[in-house]
Amino acid sequence: MSAEVSRMYINGQWALAEGGATFDVVNPADQSVVARVANGATPEILRAVEAAQAAFKEWSLLAPKDRGRLLLAIQELMEQRRDELARLITLENGKPFEEARKEVQFSLGYFGWFAEEARRMTGEWIPSPQPGKRYWVFHQPVGPVAAVTPWNFPATMVTRKIAPALAAGCTVVLKPASATPLTALAIAKITEDAGLPPGVFNVLTTNRARLVGNELLTHPLIRKIGFTGSTEVGKWIMGMASKQIKRLSFELGGNAPFIVFDDADLPRAVEGAVAMKYLRVGGQSCICANRIYVQRSVADRFIPAFIDAVKGLKVAPGFEPGAQIGPLINEETRAKVHGLVQDAVKRGADLVTGGRYLTEGAYAKGFFYAPAVLLDVTDDMPIAQEEIFGPAAPILVFDTEEEVIRRANATKFGLAAYFYARDMTRVVRVSEALEYGLVGANDAGGYTHEIPFGGFKESGLGREGGHEGIEEYTEVKSVVLSLPS
Question: 10 Å Cβ neighbour count for 407?
């Protein structure tokens, strides 16, 4: 490991933390230290916020097409450096390199989408009810934004927040997850090389979470908070933000049902279930399938095929060719997943494959876990109630459509849901009945840039992506003009 410290990016400068404080970034595949990163504190927080505030006036007044031109330049540079970014993701996050490349390719698309949306933030001219007055309505950027992103998608979670903010005319202070700051710093370097003005985008690296909450998120110059993470942390942030009535957008926890009806295309359903359960960061995703419901009449066909597919998955370090599932992010996460699996078995579930630590050979130093499938699971088991966030699939059986809708909706979460069925009347009915912000009907690909993404209930506030995504970073202003008589 080099003695060089990865510096944070504040006001167009690459800065060390005051006093030289650092923290380590660890590769979850072998626990090696891949980088030492500047560990920011109060002085860096204040500098970053002040830089964002100073840059806001000029950036917000820049023509939308000119902001868009810079966003397109960032997108192009991300495309050129895709493999470099993907390598960083695999090093700090552990996901397979090919999955990391796909993440980068998807993440850079947010710059392209919002570069175009910047020019479409139109207002309204309202017909006046009084001859001597005129009324119009338009959008203005909300101001400096604090963005806090998680470790599971180190590129996508960053671009999905900063691209609409920058397009709207806001400036940003980003606090990436302390487990995966290197990708965010590489994106900052790209924005610098693309010509983004100093102070418009700042990256504060720190592992002092409480300090960030108490000083960055409550700073009076920060007018909007964008956060992706757990529901519990979201509630804590919401409580602090309420004292200043800050604007909020949250993507929080999930408990996604994956429903297989008796008229489903079963091979497609098996493929979709495996993909949405295991092949997104090894199940460490808020929209991963958390509960798999199978209609009783097709359970004897779906379940064996699903188990066989899971047994064929390759768990390996992320740079190994053909790797499909990498390590979990840390031991705490692996222990939580294993605890839920063991608890389910104690309560009567049948563990039919996986569900154990992988510790031999290439697995010896990493946080690897054998993909688990559990049968005879019931809705009251913690593994069906909590967000698993790992490669374990509880399978539950149902009899009727009405029953499975009721069971699928019986959660405080409402982020994503999936179902497979051929009957189009059923497709419409079930799509409308599921209480989730994203519904995949015969689809396990997830969302795209062009549609809004966010949760119902305790899974979040606001939307990211689509034309709604840029609106989250604006205030709506009404103007009333009295004409001289």
Answer: 17
In DSSP terms, which residues pair with 38 in a beta bridge? Answer: 22
Q: Which tens digits make up the pLDDT trace of 248-279?
A: 999 999 999 999 999 999 999 999 999 999 99
* 428 Cβ contact partners less than 8 Å away, ≥ 6 residues apart: none
Say what the pLDDT of residue 160 is: 98
Predicted confidence band of residue 398 (pLDDT cuts 50, 70, 90):
very high
Would you call 213 exposed, middle or buried from its count of C-beta atoms within 10 A (0-12, 13-18, 19+)? middle
Distant-in-sequence, close-in-space partners of 278: CB < 8 Å, separation ≥ 6: 310, 313, 324, 325, 371, 391, 393
Give the mean pLDDT of the chain: 97
Q: What domains can be seen in the chain, in order of their start residue?
A: 5-252+458-479 (3.40.605.10), 256-448 (3.40.309.10)
Residue (of 140, 198, 192, 187) closest to 160 by Cα position: 187
Burial class (CB in 10 A: 0-12, 13-18, 19+), 258: buried
Residue 1: which pLDDT band, with cuts at 50, 70 and 90?
very low
Phi-psi region of 42 (alpha: psi -120 to 50; beta: other; left: phi over 0): alpha
Which of 117, 170, 286, 458 is labelled catalytic? Answer: 286
288 closest CA partner among 403, 432, 440: 440
pLDDT in the model for residue 221:
98
Q: Tell me what pLDDT residue 39 has.
A: 98
H-state helical runs in 347-400 = 382-385
Angstrom distance (rounded) from CA 67 to CA 62: 7
pLDDT tens for each residue of 276-302: 999 999 999 999 999 999 999 999 999
Report the distance separating Cα 1 and Cα 21, nearest Å: 17
In sequence order, what DSSP letters do the residues of 27-75 get, joined into one string?
A: -TTT--EEEEEE---HHHHHHHHHHHHHHHHHHHHS-HHHHHHHHHHHH
Residue 286 is a catalytic residue? yes
C-alpha to C-alpha distance for 375 and 361, rounded to whole angstroms: 30
* Cα–Cα distance measured from residue 147 to residue 9, given in angstroms and rounded to the nearest whole number: 14
Place of tokens 């079930």: 430
251 is catalytic: yes
Q: Give the residue ranges of DSSP H helices in 376-419.
A: 382-385, 401-409
Pick the catalytic residue: 92, 117, 192, 251? 251
Those residues with Cβ within 8 angstroms of residue 67's Cβ, 6 or more apart along the chain or in another chain: 59, 115, 118, 166, 167, 169
Give the global pTM: 0.96
Give the residue from 173, 172, 181, 171 showing the smallest Cα distance to 150.
181
Closest CA to 449 of 46, 60, 108: 108
Neighbours of 30 (CB within 10 A): 16
Q: What is the mean pLDDT of residues 191-204?
A: 98
